[in-house]
């Protein structure tokens, strides 16, 4: 005769079979695949070059935006009694005499702080202009092709054949007063060709993708295809080139100012101070040394940032 107690316990509705001990725990949610930008940001956060360059660039931008936070001295006020004094005045750190004085008795430290603004403005503004102008022309040429590509490509070749610094010198000679915005115009007038070529090549590659053909088949307009599908996927190489080129534009501004064809006094610039420091290199090396170090660190920071971004956005380098 069967055991009624065991049968009832086995058939009770509250009885639940225990899961096997070795069974894996169920996953609540599948991991969402990351995009190119998500993978790039994950790589950048682990890249020491990106972290160091980002901190340095943030510090430079802070100096350029708020120079009064770092010194109370005037970069243009001089005292001829202190001219060519290079001995640091440790009791005056951050105010005036920390790094000595130049030929006109002006604070070298104050001029370093205020000179950051001119260099950063020139580099950032030129980069934005050449990215917009060159990127637009390259996108139009690469997408439409045909005679549009032929005309824009030949125009790009004409400007690309002009030596960059030599052409900037010629353009700057046409202006009597060479302000920061005049230098920005001269550099941007000849610097957009590289961005146009990079964008054109990227667009030609992206427009062959299946999602672009699918958007055309669904009746999407030209503007929607360009700005919704092609531009976001063609911006990676442009961002890399623009980041690296920014440091080059800062260096170009300093070179033009050093040659006396860029910014000039009373505008405070590292290039102007380097030019003045060369004249006193035998007696007061500090006038040349400190702005040269600041210029080198700034250019190096943007180059390091560009290399880090390039390594993160290029799948072949991972």
Describe the protein.
With 318 residues, the chain is an all-alpha fold. 65% of the residues lie in helices and 0% in strands. It has one domain (56-317): MetI-like fold. It contains twelve helices and no strands. α4 packs antiparallel against α5 and α6 (164-173) packs across α7 (180-191). The chain is elongated.
Short description:
The protein is mainly alpha-helical. The chain has helices at 4-11, 36-45, 48-65, 108-144, 146-160, 164-173, 180-191, 193-206, 210-217, 222-258, 270-278, 286-313. Helices cover 65% and strands 0% of the residues.
Residue ranges: pLDDT <50 for 5 or more in a row? 4-30, 89-94
How many angstroms does the end-to-end distance come to?
Answer: 72 Å
CATH topology: MetI-like fold
| Spatial extent as radius of gyration | 30 Å
Q: Count structural domains.
A: 1
How much strand?
under 5%
Query: Could you describe the largest sheet, including whether it forms a barrel?
Result: none
């Amino acid at each position: 005769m069967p055991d009624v107690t065991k049968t009832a316990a086995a058939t009770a509705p509250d009885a639940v079979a225990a899961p096997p001990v070795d069974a894996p725990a169920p996953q609540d949610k599948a991991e969402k695949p990351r995009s190119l930008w998500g993978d790039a940001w994950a790589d950048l956060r682990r890249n020491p070059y990106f972290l160091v360059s980002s901190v340095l660039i943030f510090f430079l931008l802070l100096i350029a935006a708020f120079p009064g936070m770092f010194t109370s001295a005037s970069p243009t006020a001089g005292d001829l009694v202190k001219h060519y004094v290079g001995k640091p005045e440790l009791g005056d750190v951050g105010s005036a005499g920390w790094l000595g004085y130049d030929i006109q008795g002006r604070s070298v430290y104050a001029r370093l702080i205020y000179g950051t603004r001119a260099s950063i403005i020139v580099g950032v503004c030129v980069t934005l202009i050449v990215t917009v102008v060159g990127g637009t022309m390259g996108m139009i040429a690469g997408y439409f092709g045909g005679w549009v590509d032929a005309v824009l490509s030949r125009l790009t070749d004409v400007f690309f054949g002009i030596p960059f610094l030599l052409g900037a010198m010629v353009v700057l000679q046409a202006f009597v007063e060479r302000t920061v915005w005049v230098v920005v115009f001269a550099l941007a007038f000849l610097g957009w060709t590289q961005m146009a070529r990079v964008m054109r090549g990227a667009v030609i590659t992206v427009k062959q993708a299946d999602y672009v053909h699918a958007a055309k088949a669904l009746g999407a307009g030209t503007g929607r295809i360009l700005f919704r599908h092609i531009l976001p996927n063609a911006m990676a190489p442009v961002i890399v080139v623009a980041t690296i080129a920014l440091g080059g534009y800062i260096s170009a501004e300093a070179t033009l100012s050093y040659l006396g064809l860029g910014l000039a006094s009373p505008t405070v610039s590292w290039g102007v101070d380097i030019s003045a420091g060369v004249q006193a290199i035998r007696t007061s090396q500090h006038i040349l040394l400190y702005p040269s170090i600041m210029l080198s660190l700034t250019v190096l920071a943007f180059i390091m940032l560009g290399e880090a971004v390039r390594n993160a956005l290029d799948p072949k380098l991972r």
